[in-house]
Design a protein that fits this description.
The chain has one domain. Helices cover 60% and strands 0% of the residues. The protein has 4 helices and no strands. With 89 residues, the protein is mostly helical. Helix 2 packs antiparallel against helix 4.
Length: 89
């Protein structure tokens, strides 16, 4: 039972990561890749114990993190948004 909860937690973490990428303007190819990953993590027939047991979470984890790394080229340069205090003189 606890193994199922762990696997489900892993699936939800991957879904959250992919969901965050919806805010970014991505080219169509990357958007389609995200949709394929989401489809692999959200079965059309709904979640079931059999689906969860058969799911290769490690492979999907690798695929999702590889997708996230591939997005670096499509994002604007990071801006430094941290507030800095003036130096004391």
């Amino acid at each position: 039972m606890f193994e199922a909860f762990r696997r489900l937690r892993d699936v939800h973490e991957l879904l959250l990561l992919l969901d965050e990428t919806r805010r970014w303007p991505l080219p169509p190819q990357q958007t389609e890749h995200r949709q394929r990953l989401l489809a692999a993590l959200e079965p059309a027939a709904g979640l079931s114990p059999h689906w969860l047991a058969a799911l290769d979470v490690a492979a999907l984890d690798t695929a999702v993190h590889g997708f996230l790394r591939s997005l670096r080229a499509h994002l604007p340069p990071e801006t430094n948004t941290r507030r800095r205090l003036p130096l004391a003189q």
